[in-house]
Design goal:
Layout: E1 3-7, H1 10-28, E2 41-45, H2 48-68, E3 82-86, E4 88-90, H3 100-107, H4 129-143, E5 148-153, E6 178-181, E7 191-194, H5 196-199, E8 202-209, H6 215-223, E9 240-246
Parallel strand pairs: 1-9, 2-3, 2-5, 5-8, 8-9
Antiparallel strand pairs: 4-7, 6-7
């Protein structure tokens, strides 16, 4: 079942999702917390306007919490106890403006003191996509063997998530956790993406959806349509599937 969290607009969506992220990760970081029972959060980040907006808001809230001091402590994420993964990546170096990892580093990761070895990128631009996909399987196996605590997902107007597009080869993948995409209909065409076997091992899947052009896809997501037609409908958390949705994208719900 998909739980709805309706908000007025993208600004409220970003604020609500960022605050929920902090509250949830802080709880995971209690002794023995999280899927792995080690107080370390494994999270998957997403790009796009809402996704990067949430990361910028997390950076702002982190700075504000640091400035509060011990007299008025604010709830905050301990970024030294977070491992970060990416739902997909374009076949470009991290320095390229199209890189999801590069955008995440600029918006958040460079500002919060997360250990470099906790940022699990695909190394695209340096290795082949097939090699990158295979290596990412190892990253997940080594650093998130039980799955992810939170997987953030944007969604396209046709219902795509990560780089899983309707009726694409990747949307039918049911074994590998990472998949090389050579024909993405949304440029750039070459990408590596997490697949349903990885996505659906997430305890919490949070969709970040805004824009009236996404209203039809949002309705199919909630209704549980066929995943090959509307890929977002195939993503379900093991404990929670939460849709942060602005009013313009909620018109058909």
């Amino acid at each position: 079942m998909v739980t709805l969290r309706r908000v007025s607009d993208i600004d409220e969506l970003i604020s609500s999702a960022a605050l929920a992220f902090i509250e949830t990760v802080a709880a995971i970081q209690a002794p023995g917390g999280g899927l792995h029972k080690d107080g370390v959060a494994r999270v998957v980040l997403t790009g796009g306007g809402a996704g990067i907006g949430v990361l910028r808001e997390l950076a702002r809230l982190h700075e504000a919490a640091q400035q509060q001091g011990s007299d008025y402590p604010a709830l905050a994420v301990d970024w030294t106890r977070v491992h970060v993964f990416f739902g997909d990546e374009r076949n470009v170096p991290v320095s390229d403006p199209d890189s999801n990892e590069g955008q995440a580093r600029e918006a958040l990761l460079s500002k919060v003191g997360i250990p470099e070895q906790h940022i699990h990128g695909y190394d695209l631009g340096a290795v082949s996509m097939e090699h990158a996909a295979q290596a990412y399987e190892g990253e997940i196996r080594d650093f998130a063997p039980e799955g992810f605590d939170i997987h953030l997902l944007g969604m396209g107007h046709e219902g795509h998530i990560n780089s899983l597009f309707p009726h694409s080869e990747a949307v039918y993948e049911d074994t590998d956790h990472a998949f090389a995409v050579h024909d993405s209909p949304k440029p750039p065409s070459e990408r590596v993406t997490l697949t349903y076997p990885a996505i659906n091992r997430s305890q919490r899947i949070w969709f970040l959806v805004s824009g009236e052009e996404k209203a039809e896809a949002a309705s199919h997501l909630v209704a549980g349509a066929a995943a090959e037609d509307w890929p977002a409908a195939g993503a379900r958390g093991t404990e929670e599937t939460l849709l942060f949705v602005s009013e313009d994208a909620a018109q058909q719900l």
